[in-house]
TrEMBL record:
Chain ranges passing through the membrane: 271-296, 308-326, 332-348
A Pfam entry, by short name: TMEM43
Membrane topology: Multi-pass membrane protein
One cellular component (GO) term of this entry: endomembrane system
Signal peptide: none
The species this protein was found in: Leptospira semungkisensis
Protein name (Swiss-Prot/TrEMBL): PF07787 family protein
Domain of life: Bacteria
A GO biological process held by the record: lipid metabolic process
Presence of the UniProt keyword Secreted in the record: no
Compartments where located: Endomembrane system; Endoplasmic reticulum membrane
Alphabetical keyword list: Endoplasmic reticulum, Membrane, Transmembrane, Transmembrane helix
Length: 355
């Protein structure tokens, strides 16, 4: 039997009361979304900071520089992977354990229950609110999350000189991707559907208490790589831009190919963040109109349709405002010129009218 936690008040008044509280969150989220848009559009990205980098032979203070050559490093292994030619090794685990769930009805009454699911950090069921769930067994994770990088990494430049680099400081592009080790690369365990299992039983069936492990490695590419940052002597480190940001990026191929990869990743990241800004603004509008949404939910037949239509309308408004704000931030100088021109025209018309 699920555990019920009644909200403050009930029915339409209780629902509207809760939604009024949400207005405060909406008031905070709207300016936050505008601030996020400003940050996204004005933040310095690697592609812009490293543009115009010079070869290592021409490296000098204040300019980004790069090295193209073959990467090598000490063999790297892990708890579940045999040593090999890897840039990095990563592991994390999930346990098929009990997780608390909750549902809220139109009267703001919360019902607590629990279910078995893959959980990265299982909680002790004794802390659950449902009395029925408190007696469930507590399953802990036995594998520690870990990320490690190969040591003594060196780049043998095309001109024959060797440079050292700390791989943990490098931002690799999506072209230098991670893979799930194959059976022959594992020191123990069984891979099934992209996860590592320490028992055959768990690999075959999903059973309470089973643990699955995500293991990935980034192989050292066979091709030449280009590292763009700051070359100093026989080492490659982070480049500090005029804005004080630090960058050290790498990809497969020559300098031009690497810069294209960096720019491509920058664009993807920017569009993802723009999407986040749009969602934050959309949610703020929904919260601001929470009382109206609550009223609509109590209208038979058309209430849910009205809520959906209003949400879509607010989404369109949020999309338009997000787009306009992006344009205002990116092309502020054009708006400034237009504003000054408008002020000048208004002054001219006023003088002409009084002449």
């Amino acid at each position: 039997m699920a555990f019920e936690d009644s909200g403050e008040g009930g029915g339409i008044l209780g629902s509207i009361g809760e939604s009024i509280k949400g207005i405060l969150a909406g008031v905070a989220l709207f300016p936050a979304s505008l601030f996020l848009i400003y940050q996204v559009e004005t933040c310095e990205q690697a592609g812009a900071a490293l543009k115009g980098a010079v070869p290592a032979a021409q490296a000098q203070a204040g300019l980004a520089s790069y090295v193209t050559g073959k990467l090598s490093a000490n063999s790297l292994g892990g708890e579940f992977v045999k040593p090999g030619k890897y840039i990095s090794y990563s592991q994390s685990s999930e346990v098929y354990a009990w997780e608390e769930t909750s549902k809220e009805d139109s009267n703001k009454k919360k019902t607590y229950d629990c279910k078995l699911d893959w959980v990265s950090s299982p909680k002790n069921p004794r802390d659950f609110k449902s009395s029925q769930c408190k007696s469930k067994q507590y399953h802990r994770s036995t594998v520690e999350d870990k990320d490690s990088y190969a040591s003594d990494a060196r780049i043998k430049g095309e001109e024959g000189k060797t440079y050292t680099v700390h791989l943990g400081e490098v931002d690799f592009t999506s072209e230098v991707g991670s893979i799930v080790p194959e059976a022959g690369q594992l020191s123990r365990g069984t891979v099934e559907d992209g996860y590592l299992y320490l028992s055959e039983k768990c690999a075959r069936d999903t059973v309470e208490g089973c643990e699955r492990i995500s293991v990935s490695v980034v192989p050292i590419p066979e091709e030449n790589m280009t590292f763009v940052g700051s070359v100093s002597g026989a080492s490659v480190g982070k480049f500090t831009s005029k804005e004080g940001n630090k960058f050290l990026n790498a990809s497969v191929g020559d300098y031009l190919t690497t810069m294209k990869d960096i720019q491509s990743d920058d664009n993807v990241q920017k569009w993802v963040m723009r999407g986040v800004c749009f969602v934050v603004m959309w949610v703020s509008f929904i919260l601001l109109l929470g009382p109206l949404m609550s009223l609509l939910s109590f209208i038979p037949f058309v209430g849910e349709f009205g809520k959906a239509a209003l949400s879509i309308f607010l989404g369109i408004i949020a999309f338009l405002i997000t787009g306009i704000t992006i344009l205002l931030v990116k092309f502020w100088y054009i708006w400034l010129i237009l504003g000054l021109a408008a002020i000048g025209y208004a002054i001219y018309k006023r003088k002409a009218a009084t002449a």
